[in-house]
Design brief:
Strand content: 5-15%
Largest sheet: 4 strands, antiparallel
Shape: rod-shaped
Number of strands: 4
Helix content: 40-55%
Distance between the termini: 5 Å
Order of helices and strands: EHEHHEHE
Number of helices: 4
Length: 164
């Protein structure tokens, strides 16, 4: 694996380097940006596509609602109690369990999506890393570039090439 990256001391320099790489034809998903702290003051990255977390949370909520309805209905019909002419499956009382399982499904789906989307489930270490990132530097780089010289040119004088 070959990587070309540069370390920057401030967010604006890193943002300019990422913009130069995008202008050179690299897609956002090819560019790696690492920082030891959130970069909230400036949006470095362009949109990486549709965010799926909310839709997966809605799907989790729907599955939780279905699970709540199935659980309560099946339990009440499997062990019927004499209700004096009232329906055995009562939806007003089942709404509590259905609501709780709906929220559980939504929260679990959102949490799993967050953990997976943040890359916390990776079994291997990141391909590009420099210990200086822990000291406040911002890393901008490209893994396996077709033209390493072009990447070094766009990253500037701070560019370094690493082979693993």
């Amino acid at each position: 694996m070959k990587a070309v990256y540069a370390l920057y001391a401030d967010v604006h320099s890193a943002a300019q380097a990422a913009a130069r790489l995008r202008a050179a034809g690299f897609q956002s998903r090819q560019i790696t940006i690492l920082s030891s702290s959130p970069l909230e003051e400036l949006e470095i990255d362009e949109d990486r596509g549709l965010r799926w977390t909310s839709w997966i949370a809605v799907l989790g909520a729907a599955l939780g609602l279905a699970a709540g309805w199935i659980l309560t209905s099946w339990t009440q019909t499997d062990w019927p109690i004499q209700t004096g002419g009232m329906p055995i499956v009562s939806y007003w009382t089942n709404l509590i369990v259905m609501f709780e399982l709906t929220m559980l499904g939504a929260v679990l789906a959102a949490a799993i999506t967050f953990v997976a989307g943040a890359g916390l489930l990776r079994l291997r270490s990141p391909d590009i890393y420099d210990p200086e990132v822990s000291n406040g530097q911002i890393l901008v780089g490209v893994e396996n570039p077709a033209d390493a010289a072009l990447v070094k040119e766009k990253l500037g004088a701070a560019a370094a090439s690493v082979e693993k």
